[in-house]
Amino acid sequence: MDTVPFWVQFLALALLILCSAFFAMAETALMAANRYRLRHEAKRGNRRAITTLWLLDRTDKLLSLVLIANTLINAMCTALVTSIAIQTFGHDDNVITVSTGVVAFLLIVFAEIAPKVIGATFPERIAKPTSMVLKPLMALAKPVIWFVNLFVSQLLKVFGIKAGSHAHDPRLSPEELRSIVLEGGNFIPQKHKSILLNLFDLETISVEDIMTPRSQIEALDLDLPIEEIMRELTTCYHNKLPVYEGEINRIVGILHVRKAVALLNQEDELSHRHLRQLLTTPYFIPQDTRLFTQLQYFQENKERLGIIVDEYGEVQGLVTLDDIIEEMIGEFTTSAPSAARADSLTGWDAKGECLLDGSTPLRDVNKRLGLNFPLDGPKTLNGMLLELLQDIPEAPISIKVDQCIIEVVQVHDQAIKVVKLRQLAPH
Question: Where are its TM segments located (predicted)?
Answer without folding.
Answer: 6-33, 62-89, 95-115, 136-156
